[in-house]
UniProtKB/TrEMBL annotation, chains A, B, C:
SUPFAM superfamilies: Metallo-dependent hydrolases (SSF51556). Residues 151-378 form the Amidohydrolase-related domain. It comes from the Bacteria. It comes from Nonomuraea ferruginea. This is Amidohydrolase family protein. Coiled coil: none annotated.
Length: 382, 382, 382
């Protein structure tokens, strides 16, 4: 029993101190937040919550009061009011530094295509977190910038390729949000140049955000030509997406067609389809996945989700991300809850007599850091 | 350790004594039941079980022998024969009083549209359980009564609206079983009056139960105009339904169209799609859900299902129901197993250091009673 | 506490000593295996693993080092190199005898239609395991042998029925891999003789493996006429299948049409759709299922999967199989991990006060042996 406790405490310390690679996050907000603004940022629901409820009454809300409060110098389990008052008193810069410091990431990959003007950019994140930061480029944002800059239908494909080429000079990965704009149930083959021109003509004439399936496929196939790992939003997100059409199993056709070239495909979040993602990571050599925002949203329940992610995927194919956007609480909780869940799940394997402590440490290190260092060529211990 | 036990025992006592709002149940049977009849009522399968098995060999069967037997004055874990002999000796009225008393609900919402002549009605339930009872009206049953009373195709819509208006004078909610009659994959828009008349003509000529998708949609949209919460059967049920078409994610179109008006939509049962339901409750302000009959059917395994229901849904959007129909064992076990599962799951959050005991008590109270009291305007502590 | 330990240790011993009926396995390899060959056989992925990973870094890999190593006379948790060196030193025959002996099955049903020339046949398995072995005949393999032997389109149906009739003289069950060849989303009705002849003409002219949906349906309906239990691959498998189309819920149409005749349908593996399989086993009297290869692939996580399989299915409808093919590690781990998972899950029900120890022993015995003995008429204690 003494030795069991020693083993678990060693595993706990190793995971606690692991410099995570957060392979998919966004910037933290640089603004002080009202209660209403804060509450809107800790849920995927759109708009203010009904007046008979608060988003603090959720796993994520409870996790903030439990784990973030002490980082800000409060007791755990204070009220939302006390928490937000303390947050306001400290000011956003101090809050960001405290929470990003406590997250203990060793490297961030920051996706810059979502409401980028409302959050700090990669260099700001590097300064706040005091660790290296690299960029993940969102394909649809680049295409929409190309469209906004003025381009003809015939010129779209060329200009997009050029813009993407420029952006990836300093990027480590690309990202597709086709799950939001159409669904993952898309024709897996690349469109022809004529189809692209025709679709670009329609889109440029109609305006609005990019939701044409032909163009979304074209973006993906252009991205694949760069050879950079391509991240896909899958699973839960805000109500802009149809969850049924965000099941990563829908990507099978694309996965099969891209297997010969072998460009890494990284499935993000995946919940509640994370077992599906685990199967794809098992079956195809170039498929990877993480649990992303599912960890901070499931809070005290996240250990069960993490356990399911460890069922059939090879351990070299699983990664960590927080998917934090806005409040630094999300970046911190992504890391903190992942560490706690991994300690509980892997520690359970050890105390059940199924794994050795050394295996548990090794797998935690792979998933938390070395898999992503190798995949994104980040250097450092891999 | 002493304090941990104290905390858990306090949580246990609070949950044990909570006067639950059972937001979706049916009447108990008023007849004494043969073994064959009892066995048919503790499974969703149709017809008698094959002679090489008994429905007692299931989680629900084990739960009856474990938890109902002591309520009837027997030791736990006696045989099915002993249990049924005792049940027969006591007689159905005494059994109903004992089990409904032990269920400890503070309020029942009774859905009256399923084989209503075989079970006691709302007033009978109020008398047996000695607590207030309100009605939930099944849309399809009302429509079928209208048809049976003689109506023309052109007159159907008006007569249905009239009949529904009459029924809701004393009802707290409406219920759709479109999952059984068609599937949740239905056109989310309301049909035109001409389409309704045409569909009514076809149905009235053909006879039989209502399964026309145009009319089923019309019932739903008529229901929505009343403003009463609308319950939907989703997930498991008897083999009359196609489980693939009972996934609540299929309701997304309807959910989106009804969000502006905000009429509450309540997803019942949901298993094995309860994580999907949790997502919908998270993403849309007017969506609620419960686990219904999944709790008594999963028995000793229900804590895992309850834990999954607590992953991403805001706690203000989750409710309790037993979905009991027939044997009062189902009403009792719905409550008893829910209490045990909640104590185990929330108690685990507390002993893991993730939640405070106060948070656990508060969330149990919300889910077990106050959310439903607010939603259905039942009065009482909310 | 003393009595709780006594109870669990009794349950542990009973499950440990239970002579399992492995209702779906294949032969073990008779060849010594290189590291590369061994690694390809412990994953469902095709081809060699990328050089930056090893399939040993998985639940299955860890389970081999934990549980198989001691069977070969090594300490648990040695390295893959040490394990494979020991395996090579012992030689394949000794390894097979040791692992099959340690598996402790009392009866094997061996499916002979998959790469049969690479593994030992039923009689070889009977000799190695020193227990009775019966055969499961794969429909598609029989049809492909008929085609290879030379047959006309018009003669195909008759020749297939004849060949199947010959094969089932000594077989206990049939097996369909329509999940691989088409998907479970097939027209549930039998094709007409004219359709079969036409489809056979197309297939015989084109050659290749049997993937025509008309013929696949014809095989199933011919199989059903024999009255033998019909096993279906469902859920995970190698990337040859589209997992979305391997959801057993897709079989509902066929299940409904076959219910009157009542030929047993046995859903294999099912993961991650095992809750769907549990529902089908609950709702339909002639549906059975197992977890097959999901147990050895989920390793230390298999208790959670086993627990989910015990949620809503009647206990008389659940069975055990290893789905081992090739390395005898798979046959052994299927059994060993199932025993450990059942002990943990059922033992948990007992220590939680939900089940009696007698119930736990009885259910383990049903699932591990007696259900299959009855279904396949194997004789022995049932």
């Amino acid at each position: 029993m003494a030795s069991e406790l020693t083993v678990l405490s060693g595993l706990h310390r190793t995971i606690e101190e692991l410099p995570l690679v957060d392979q998919h996050a966004h910037g933290v907000t640089g603004r002080d937040l009202s209660r209403a603004a804060f509450e809107e940022l800790i849920t995927e629901a759109h708009g203010p919550a009904p007046d008979w409820m608060t988003p603090f009454d959720s796993q994520l809300g409870h996790a903030i009061l439990r784990h973030c409060a002490p980082v800000l110098g409060l007791d755990a389990f204070i009220s939302p009011e006390e928490y937000l008052a303390r947050r306001a008193r400290l000011g956003v810069v101090a809050v960001n530094r405290l929470l990003l410091g406590a997250a203990g990431a060793g490297h961030y990959l920051i996706e810059t295509g979502y409401r980028a003007d409302e959050v700090v950019g990669p260099s700001g994140m590097a300064e706040l977190a005091a660790v290296p930061v690299d960029e993940v480029v969102r394909l649809e944002a680049v295409a929409e910038q190309v469209a906004a800059s003025g381009v003809s239908a015939a010129g779209f494909a060329g200009r997009f390729a050029e813009a993407l080429g420029e952006r990836i000079r300093t990027a480590r990965a690309l990202k597709s949000i086709v799950a939001y704009r159409h669904g993952l149930d898309l024709d897996p083959d690349p469109p022809s140049p004529a189809e692209v021109t025709e679709a670009a003509g329609r889109w440029l004439a109609a305006g609005g955000r990019l939701a044409d399936p032909v163009l979304l496929r074209h973006l993906i196939w252009t991205a694949l030509e760069t050879g950079l790992p391509l991240q896909f939003h899958t699973g839960i997100g805000d109500p802009d997406l149809d969850l049924r059409r965000a099941d990563p199993l829908l990507l099978r056709g694309l996965i099969e067609r891209t297997q010969p070239a072998g460009v890494p495909l990284v499935l993000l979040h995946c919940y509640p389809f994370h077992r599906h993602a685990g199967y794809l990571a098992h079956a195809y050599p170039h498929v990877f996945f993480d649990l992303g925002l599912a960890v901070h949203h499931t809070g005290a329940g996240s250990a069960a989700v993490v356990a399911e992610s460890l069922e059939i995927a090879p351990f070299a194919k699983i990664m960590f991300s927080s998917d934090g956007w806005g409040p630094a609480e999300l970046h911190f909780l992504g890391a903190e809850l992942w560490r706690r869940a991994m300690t509980r799940v892997l520690g359970g394997f050890v105390t059940d007599g199924e794994w050795s402590a050394g295996q548990a440490v090794r797998v935690a290190t792979m998933i938390g850091a070395t898999n992503a260092r190798r995949l994104y060529r980040l250097g450092g211990a891999a």
